Amino acid sequence: MNGVPLISLMLAIPALGVLGVIAGAGRDGAAARTIALLSSAVTFVISLLLWVGYEPAGARFQFEEQVDWLPDFGISYHVGIDGISLLLILLTTIFVPVALAASGSSVDTRLREFASLVLVLQFAILGALVALDLFVFYIFFELMLVPTFLLVGVWGGERRVAAAMRFFLFTMVGSVAMLVGMIALGTSKGTFDYVGLIDALGKPGGSIGAATAMWLFVAFTLAFAIKVPLVPLHSWLPEAYVQAPVSVTVLMSSVMAKVGTYGFLRFSIGLFPGAAQEAASAVALLATLGIVYGALVAAKQRDLKRLVAYSSISHLGFVMLGLVAGTTEAVQGGVIQMVNHGVSTGALFLMAGMLNERARTWAIAHFGGLARVMPVFAALLVLVTFSSAGLPFTNGFTGEFLILTGAFRAPATHVWAFAVVGAVGVILGAVYLLRMFQQVMQGPVNPAFVAGNGGANGPFSIGDLTGREMLILAPLAVLIIWIGVYPKPFLDRSAPAVRAVTASFAGASR
Amino acid sequence: MPGLPETVPTEAYLALSAVLFGIGAIGVVLRKSALTMFMSIELMLNAVNLTLVAFARQFGRLDGQVIVFFVMAVAAAEVAVGLAIIVDIFRSRRSVDIDDVSWLRG
Amino acid sequence: MLDQLWLVPVLPLAGAVLNAFLGRRFGRDAVVAFGVGSVALSFMVAVGTVNDLLAMGQMMHGVETHLFPWLAWGDGAARVTVAEVGMLLDPLSATMILVVTGIGTLIHVYSAGYMEHDDGFARYFAYLNLFTFAMLVLVLANNLVLLFVGWELVGFCSWALIGFWFDRDSAANAGRKAFITNRIGDLGVLVALFLVWANWGTFAFHTAPGSMTPGFLDDPAKVLATPLLAMAIPLLLLVGVTGKSAQIPLFVWLPDAMEGPTPVSALIHAATMVTGGVYLVARVHPVYDQSPEALLALAAIGALTAFVAATIATAQNDIKKVLAYSTVSQLGFMVLGLGAGAYSAAIFHVMTHAFFKALLFLGAGAVIHGLANQQDLRRMGGLLRYMPVTGWTFIVGWLAIIGVPGFAGFFSKDLILAKAFGRGLVDPTYLVLYGVALVTVGLTAFYMSRLVFLAFFGEYRGSHDEGEVHPHEAPFSMLFPLSVLAVGSVVAGWVGVPAFLIGAGGEGTAIERFLAPATLATGVWEGTLNHSTELLLAGLSVAVTLVGVGAAGVIFLGEGASPLLGELVRPFRDLFAGRWFLDELYGAVVVRPVGRVSSYLASFDAGVVEGTVTLVGSSVTGLGGILARLQSGYVRGYAVTMLVGAVGVVAAAWALR
User: How far, in Å, CA of C217 to CA of A452, rounded?
Assistant: First the structure.
């Protein structure tokens, strides 16, 4: 297995899949989804091989490949994974087929273009996660924009174009800042290689000075903070998530947002631990603000999808708080919470989408009493809702508890207080999630769903989950319980990489 | 011929070049016909060429002459493209009045 | 048998899983088999393990079982463990698992009859089994995080079961209120957990074999930077206790929780879950021993809660609401006991209370069942004649809760009162609290007697003639648990017969000696009152009880209160019937302000944040619009501009030469 360039193979499959979809699917695109699913299934298998082959006790980066590209500028095609990227790669390879399968009836035009754009997005995300060269990372990071812009702008809801445009512009502003920072850093050290840069910066006399480091940290962080997003840079998110078709929303929230948090951990903190340490309180403040703000705003939403969108802001605040706290528990929690957010928020979006397919509305007030109508759906929604609210033995608790416990003893000033405020956010999470659950699932059945003639769905006009829908949600339910009860396999894999980060972090604080 | 310099001084070339350039510039600004504007531009280009050659001779170096060749090549290409555009405009509008072609306003 | 301890929680979990996935397919008999069978088996295993534990004789911390690493990573030397999944069986948890599985089994049996006609049968048993699992996790946990897991999971099950009849908005609301109120309390626990981790670097109660870090209960004196922080942990945990064990100020959820099916009220909201807070304090008592202030806070909250809840109970007309407030009041007694440093007395009362309160709730359930969902005491009366088994067992429960000598409640309640009084000899504040508790004993006798007299004596006041409701006795599956619990409500107290009654020697009562390894306070005042003082205290509380029963008898069996008395107590009755208007207060102080902030932020997000972004966008477009006008489209215009520009640049360069 050693000789096989698994990572390049993993990147090649979605790229080939795009060609396959274009060539294989007829003009009506009937086969497009099948081909794309097939391609994403193969990618998933390859990512499983990475999971199996990854040695927690081994080298810092594994499955490394490096080929010179623009040697004069110190740019090379350098890819490799550590435990953190490994977890997120798996998250990606799981969610792309899920999103494709879930696109169902919400996407029924231009299937060929849709399927190939989803694969392009997967290609870009995976590329960003494996890149160990800043330049290569930047290319993949920017490449994510194109398919997302089109996916929102073409297949979205009524105000899709404005939403896509706003998303594009916001992200662009951040990217440009990062590009400038990257060029400044790369040219001053003569290489864009991540490992090379860390070595160069860590060498005695290799430091770039605290002020410069802070500027560069801010430039990089701006890009990632917008992608995540961190309050107050979030205003592209609700519109984009609401306007996008459900499967695209899922990809954006579950996977693409993770590239933001991943980039923050890998590059902002990884390259500039000193500056990160210094800015920790400020970032933690914004993260905590996001936790509380997102939760409070979510509590007042009347639109199911918008509610989940704001809850996503709140949950990503936890991730950022954990990453910036810098203790091993907190960063471990932050990493696992990236996966959790993907699984739980993704599942919430998917289930909201399933309701929408049946009722053709997102308005919470139009539901009610659905637990009577859709008992299986209700049971799953209980699981997902409480996982999102951080109930122990579900994934949400594993992440949030580690984050908050670790943040509480973080060395940076006042971060402990943010952990306490974050804990308040856990309560607020329960408030809006339970209210949502009650309004949608409990109470008397909304008469709109009573058919009364005993058709295919019994006395109701809409049916419970179909087999396909259960198949989509089943892996997510398994992950929710698995990470909740036995997170060790995940934590084991991320531990060495997290330790490397926290060591540099602690070293920087002297 | 005593009293006269052995060669034409550089200043004379420059003066001629300035006059040519001025004529060209005024032509571009004042004339309405696209073709005349075009010829005026050529006039300006050649004024510049003249300057370049004059200096090249004065300093005894070749760079200026090389650049002139570049300019001539570019001018030739420009003529080809520009004339094609003008012909096309004429075909669609039956006129080469440049003020008629103002669709690209903000 | 100790090796099979893991079966105790796992069996109910298996029952829950089976019922959740297959219950609807298998039919009711299978659901009952899974649901009741799993808990009954779990009870048997529990008995076996506890028996083995007893056979081991004297022990320090009991037996720990390490199951698997949970919040942990790395292997070998690089292993970091935040929390593991493991169990601790010591006298304290042994008592609790017997109560949980034993009474749990009875209530499961009862439920099979009570819920027979409900179409959510499988769901009901799945949740009830899951609850049993969660409660066992809570009491068996060998570290604080796992305890918190159980703590939260029981809250979740409570949410699901209170809102079991989710078609009713009131039930769904009550479930949500219970969960969120509990979560507010949990915030305290969570922050206490952070402090524990920051201070001790471990959540393990006791030192694991081969571990470098001692368990935090083994090293309670290692405190944070300041005494204030040392006090912080017990006080923060106390916040959690007020939520879970329904104490002031967070008890408001428990009465609403009566929206759930009655067996749920009996199991979760009387016998087990609500005692979780008491258990928590007993479990981590070394931390409390460090802080007399925290103990005093516990005692004060307990006594006050006992009193307030008892007053409210005197003015309720819903049979379940009376019992709910009675539960709050009794929990207050337990917390008072904890505050007096008498952890084993509190646990003793947990045990006896589990019997008689489960009995009372199940009896109330049988009454409600027999009256076709009538819960109003004013529509009952004379039921002893119609449902003798329910009636007589209920009377046993009544005698137990008011503390008639010989019945279970007498022994445990008196032990708490004696301990509070004893501590009062050191710290006079406790004497005041003792006084409050004594008054509450009288109130307890009054409101419980009122309930019994109104429901079971006198004439039936329901609608006979309409021919709809005929009071009838419950089926055997419901009567059997009642009978067992009635026996328990008597004999459960006998493990705590005080020395002054039987003349036996030794320190304290049998139950105290049993629990001592786990719950004996260190460093706080311990002492023994002499026997005559104890006898006097017991006599005093019996006398107060008799006054309470007598007053209730005069008012509700005899002539009724005189109009003058009625006028005099009216303001109090209004206050009590209005539950001291706490719900209104919280509505005004917490719920609505949070809602307002939330609305404000939502409009802020939609208005200001959106607005700012739109403003940036539109100003860019606007500026572009203005500049765009320079693009006239006239080529010669551009040429002039260019010329002028070029001349300008050259001129500027020359001028600045």
Answer: 62
C490/C406 Cα distance (integer angstroms):
7
Q: What's the pLDDT at C46?
A: 93
DSSP B24: H
And the tokens for B49?
Answer: 């060429």
Tell me which residue of C490, C498, C506 sits closest to C535, measured CA to CA. Answer: C498
What's the pLDDT band for C612 if we cut at 50, 70, 90?
confident
Residue owning tokens 């080809």: B80
pLDDT greater than 80 at residue C294:
yes
pLDDT single digits (tens) A184-240 = 998 888 889 999 898 888 777 777 888 888 999 999 999 999 998 888 888 888 889
Domains in chain B: ranges and CATH: 10-96 (1.10.287.3510)
Q: For chain C, how many residues are written?
A: 657
- Per-residue pLDDT of C303-324, as tens digits, reads 999 999 999 988 888 899 999 9
Mutate to test the interface with C, among A161, A230, A235, A426 (most CBs of C within 10 A): A235
Bridge partners, C26 (sequence order): none
Whole-angstrom Cα distance, residue C443 to residue C549?
9
Residue C560 predicted with pLDDT over 70: no
A364 near A439, Cβ under 8 Å?
Answer: yes
| pLDDT computed for residue A129 by the predictor | 95
| CA A420 to chain centroid | 25
State the pLDDT at residue A314. Answer: 93
Count other C-beta atoms under 10 Å from residue B84's C-beta.
Answer: 10
Contact C37, C128 (CB under 8 A): no
Best CA proximity match to A399, nearest among A343, A338, A324, A357: A338
The CA distance from C405 to A422, in Å, is: 51
* Interacting residues of A71 by C-beta distance below 8 A, sequence separation 6+: none
Amino acid at C655: A
Shortest CB distance from A420 goes to which of C72, C191, C617? C191
Q: Where are the domains of chain A?
A: 278-498
For chains A and C, having 3+ Cβ pairs within 8 Å is answered yes
Digitized pLDDT (tens) for each residue of chain B, 106 residues in all: 556 667 788 889 999 999 999 999 998 888 888 888 888 989 999 999 999 999 998 888 888 899 999 999 999 998 899 889 888 888 888 888 877 777 776 6
Q: Which residues pair with C189 in a beta bridge?
A: none
Residue A378 reports pLDDT greater than 70:
yes
pLDDT higher than 90, residue C335: yes
Q: Do A426 and C183 lie within an 8 Å CB cutoff?
A: yes
Residue A275: closest CA among A196, A186, A212, A224: A212
Residue C89's H or E segment, with its range, is strand C80-89
Q: Are C285 and C521 in contact (CB under 8 A)?
A: yes
C554 CB-side CA count, 13 A: 8
Rounded to the nearest 10 degrees, what angle do helices C276-283 and C319-339 cross at?
A: 10
This prediction has a pTM of 0.87
Give the whole-angstrom CA distance, residue C172 versus residue C160: 9
Q: What is the ipTM of this complex?
A: 0.92
Which backbone phi and psi does A307 adopt, to 5 degrees? -60, -45
Q: How far apart are CA A198 and CA A432, in angstroms?
A: 43
Task: Inform me whether the C-beta atom of residue C629 falls under 8 Å from chain B C-beta atoms.
Answer: yes
At residue C142, the 3 state secondary structure works out as coil
> Is the separation of the CB atoms in A261 and A345 below 8 Å?
no
Restricting to C residues 171-190, those with a Cβ less than 8 Å away from any Cβ of A are 172-173, 176, 179-180, 183-184, 186-187, 190
Q: Are A338 and A88 in contact (CB under 8 A)?
A: yes
CB-CB under 8 Å, C643 with B25: yes
Judged by a CB distance cut-off of 8 A, whether residue C643 touches chain B is yes
